From TrEMBL:
Annotated Phosphatidylinositol transfer protein N-terminal domain residues: 1-104, 105-226
InterPro entries attached to this UniProt entry: PI_transfer, PI_transfer_N, START-like_dom_sf
This protein's GO CC annotations: cytoplasm
Pfam families, alphabetized: IP_trans (PF02121)
Species: Wuchereria bancrofti
GO molecular function: phosphatidylcholine binding; phosphatidylcholine transporter activity; phosphatidylinositol binding; phosphatidylinositol transfer activity
SUPFAM superfamilies, per the entry: Bet v1-like
Domain of life where this protein originates: Eukaryota
Protein name per Swiss-Prot or TrEMBL: Phosphatidylinositol transfer protein N-terminal domain-containing protein
Length: 251
C-alpha cells in the first residue's frame, strides 16, 4: 500500500473554498464526461452520522458516484484488465471541512502517519501540469478576480498574499493482485499531484462564477448537472483528462 498526504495551499477563506469546491466538482464532472466515460451520480443527499468519523457526530452531503475511467487509464492497464475493472464506485461523506471517501481519510493511525509521504502542492507550479491543462482562463498568474480583487498570483504568493488556507488530501492506494500491485499503485499515485493541482487551479480561477452563489444555488446546479451527465456520457465525444502515462506505460 502507498499512502501520500497532499497539502494544497489556496488563496481563499475556508467558507469560500467550500462553495468553490462544490461548484468545481460539478463543473469538472461535466468537463470530464463523454464518450462512455466520466461520472454518473447515483445519490446526492444530506446525511448525519456518528460512524463516518468515529467519536464525532457530523452532518453534510453524501454522494454515491460511478466513475467510468477506461479511456483515462494507462495503456498497459487497459491491455491487462477487463472493462469492468475501470468502473469505479465512490462513496463520499462531505461534512466540510472534514471529507471522507473510500480512498481518503484524515484520521490516520500512528502507523499510517509514519508511512505517509507529505507532498506540498502549490497551484502556481506549472511543472505539476501538462501544457494542455493550462488555459488563459485557468492561469493563476494571469487571473484577477473582479469580485474579490485577488490575483494575479506572484511566485511568492504564499508569503505575500492573504488569505491563505491549506486543504489536506490523504490518499491510500492498495491494489491486491499478485504481480501487479506495485506497478498499479505507483501509476495511480503519480496521477494525484496533477489532478489536485489542476482541480484547485480551476476552482480558484472560477471564483467569479461561484463567489456570489449560495449553497442552495450550488445544490440546484448539482441536481441539474446530474441529469446533464446522464446525457453526456452517452454522447460519442470523449472529454477531459487522460492518464499522465504514455502508450508504452511510462511517464
Amino acid at each position: 500500500m502507498i499512502i501520500k498526504e497532499f497539502r494544497i495551499l489556496m488563496p481563499l477563506e475556508m467558507d469560500e473554498y467550500y462553495r468553490g469546491q462544490l461548484f468545481a466538482v460539478s463543473e469538472t464532472s461535466k468537463n470530464e464526461t463523454g464518450g462512455g466515460d466520466g461520472v454518473l451520480v447515483l445519490e446526492n443527499d444530506d446525511f448525519t452520522s456518528t460512524t463516518v468519523r468515529p467519536g464525532h457526530s457530523i452532518t453534510g452531503i453524501y454522494t454515491h458516484k460511478i466513475y467510468r475511467t477506461k479511456s483515462k487509464s494507462p495503456w498497459a492497464l487497459r491491455k491487462i484488465f477487463p472493462d469492468a475493472a475501470f468502473v469505479l464506485h465512490e462513496e463520499c461523506w462531505n461534512a466540510f471541512p472534514y471529507c471522507k471517501t473510500v480512498i481518503k481519510a484524515l484520521d490516520l493511525s500512528p502507523t499510517l502517519l509514519k508511512k505517509r509521504e507529505v507532498i506540498i502542492i502549490d497551484i502556481y507550479d506549472d511543472s505539476l501540469l501538462k501544457k494542455s491543462d493550462i488555459t488563459p482562463e485557468t492561469d493563476v498568474r494571469e487571473f484577477k478576480s473582479k469580485k474579490t480583487g485577488r490575483g494575479k498570483l506572484p511566485k511568492d504568493w504564499i508569503e505575500t498574499t492573504k488569505p491563505v488556507m491549506c486543504c489536506y488530501k490523504v490518499v491510500q492506494v492498495h491494489f491486491k493482485m499478485f504481480g501487479f500491485q506495485t506497478m498499479v499503485e505507483h501509476v495511480l499515485q503519480r496521477q494525484y499531484p496533477r489532478i489536485f493541482a489542476k482541480f484547485n487551479r480551476e476552482l480558484y480561477c472560477w471564483t467569479d462564477r461561484w463567489y456570489d452563489m449560495t449553497i442552495e444555488d450550488i445544490k440546484k446546479m448539482e441536481r441539474e448537472a446530474t441529469e446533464e451527465l446522464k446525457k453526456q456520457i452517452a454522447e460519442p465525444e470523449k472529454r477531459g483528462t487522460v492518464c499522465d502515462v504514455d502508450d508504452k506505460g511510462t511517464t
